[in-house]
Amino acid sequence: MKLTETRIKTVEISAVFLTAIGKFVFMDFLDLRLGFILVVISFWLFYTIFRLRFFPMIANHWGFRLDNFNRVLSKVLPFGLVAVALFLLIGWYQNSINLTWHIVPILVLYPIWGTLQQFLLIALTTGNLYDLKGSKWKKEVIVFISAILFSIIHYPYPWLMAGTFVLAIFYGWIYLSDRNIYVLGLFHGWLGGIFYYTVLNRDPFVETFGNLFNLSN
Known about the structure:
The chain has helices at 5-29, 33-54, 58-62, 69-94, 103-131, 139-153, 158-177, 181-198, 204-213. The N and C termini lie far apart (52 Å). It is mostly helical. α1 (5-29) packs antiparallel against α2, α1 (5-29) packs antiparallel against α5 and α5 crosses α8. The longest helix has 29 residues, at 103-131.
């Protein structure tokens, strides 16, 4: 049976939800953070390559493009600078700033994970919901639903849930007007990494690679 574009989008949205459920099972409950990340990256990379092979134009629609990079960057950069200043202010106020050399590899590697998250949340969820034929949902509702989903994924950390909700609202509006996953993924990784070391006083490098390199907090 030949899949219609609407059915493909529905399957993609469902697969994103299953990935989100897997996060709770394998990262939060079983503490298999690195393994889960590697499996998810591998699966979605394979799927992306598979889709591009048969429908190469989907890359541009998803937001894997450079022609509007500077335009999207000019919109996201001010938001990013204000966010970093706010992170530092909150961190100073609650004495939670914990900057170590670990932040360097995180700022290099986390944008890769951030790009994947933006691809799943923004392109395959927000974008697909917006593009579904016959959908009567307004843009505001779609962006809000996606933001709620992204926030719930980061349960049970209140600061992280609040931060990702605001980020998803802003990113959703940007994406639906100018589709560019590269800029959103890059800033997702950088802002997320800085957020961990300032507001949350957590070390994602140890949390991810601690068992591999025999590291401890």
